[in-house]
Amino acid sequence: MGTKEKIKATVEKIWLLLRWMLYSVVIGTVIGLVGTAFGYAMQGVTSFRSTHFWVLFLLPVLGVLIIFIYRKSGMEDNRGTNLVLEAVSSDEVIPARVAPVIFVSTVLTHLGGGSAGREGAALQLGGSLGTFLGHFFKVDDHDRKIAVMCGMSAAFAALFGTPLTAAIFPMEVVSVGIMHYSALIPCVFCALIAAEVATLCGIHAEAFPVELVPKLAVEPVVKMIGIAILCGLISTLFCTILHSGDRLFKKIGNPYVRVIAGGLLVIVMTLLLGTQDYNGAGMQVIERCVLEGEVFFAAFLLKMLFTAVTLGSGFRGGEIVPAFFVGATFGCLAGQILGISPQLAAACGMLAVFCGVTNSPITTVFMGLELFGSAGMQYYLLVVAISYCVSGYSGLYSSQKIVYSKFKTKYINRRTGH
Predict the structure, then answer these.
(1) In the prediction, which pLDDT does 16 show?
(2) Can you give the pLDDT at residue 194?
(3) Angle value at C-alpha 411, between 410 and 414, nearest 5 degrees
(4) pLDDT at residue 7 in the model
(5) d(C-alpha 93, C-alpha 358), whole Å
(6) Rounded CA separation 69/157 (Å)
(7) What angle do CA 158, 18, 93 make, to 5 degrees?
(8) pLDDT tens, 299-333?
(9) Pairing, β 401-404 against β 175-176
């Protein structure tokens, strides 16, 4: 390559960098503001439900409203987060109407006490708005996929306040075994900007500092390896239960009957247990596990059941915060049984299950750093690596591709199994 060609190539790279920095400012700011509004809406309905128990009995009615909204918007067969992943791995296009529909439907689900998370909605919200802004900037098909990942990063960062995690997650989760490094700079900028916008608007980052960490020694390492292996198996069980719940409820042909049945079942289970711990996202339970080391022995199983009924019957929301709940409660319980810090075990369990269900080990390590601090990083790295392998090829998202084997340097290119 001659001198002129090298200069031209350098100028093109700098122009590309500047262009994506400009796009990132717009995407990060817009989605940061929308994510902030979504965060406040979720806080509002969660607070209202916790002080007005009667709203739980409206869950079937709210479910009917959700189905009606999806039908009227022509999104009855919407594939949720899978659609977002497909928009990156294929030529699938996310309709702009996904953003308002998932926003409203997730808020309604949480208002009535459905067991679901927030991040699935955030990823769909961000992916939809990223696609829209990509069209606004008139980018080509390849850059449109980067815009989708930027939107995912921005929404995740705004909602959770974890920009490191948010920047890496969209690049890693789509195709296990490879990273979409072409989106690195845009996703980093979008995540940082969106997180800052949310902070300025009063949305505080999630954080559960774990400080009492045993020194790295044979006994605690062996115990933590055991917890990590069990969490890898738990993550597989969680995915199996969710997908089985979806298949079982689909045997009820009428979606309105399906969602009413699911809503009534959640009401009955809540009344029988006499607690709202398993309604909504359940962040208060996660806090008790990580900060206080307290847990009900069957909490992780009950959360799986509540989430499977909620999402399988047609309510909307995410699966990742329920996975946090399952991991934190199981880890805390295992820590109590094995005689290792329940707080540290809860944090490790939460990370191990998240990694197992999303197949995203690098993202999970960053998450451990942002959520729990650096004191237990050696343990976090250990449990993430083990859970990633033990969980095999299961996963929350059927559109996720396992490009390279987890066990050999072998190209397999298969979708996650259920």
Answers:
(1) 82
(2) 96
(3) 125
(4) 79
(5) 22
(6) 27
(7) 55
(8) 999 999 999 999 999 999 989 999 999 999 999 99
(9) parallel
Under-50 pLDDT residues of the chain = none
Q: Is 404 helix (H, G, I), strand (E, B) or coil?
A: strand
In single-letter form, the type of residue at position 126 comes to G
318 SS3 class = strand
Tokens 């929404």 -> residue: 155
Residues in Cβ contact with 202 at an 8 Å cutoff, skipping those fewer than 6 apart? 36
What is residue 394's DSSP assignment? B
Among 411, 351, 34, CA closest to 198? 34
Confidence at residue 1, expressed as pLDDT on a 0 to 100 scale: 61
> Residue 400 in contact with residue 173, Cβ under 8 Å?
yes
Reference 83, options 60, 99, 68; nearest CA is 99
Residues 156/191, Cβ–Cβ less than 8 Å: yes
Alpha carbons 229 and 112: distance in angstroms, whole number:
35
Burial of 141: CB neighbours in 10 Å, binned 0-12, 13-18, 19+ = exposed
Q: Which residues of 331-354 are buried (b: 16+ CB within 10 A; e: fewer)?
A: bbbbbbebebbbbbbbbbbbbbbb
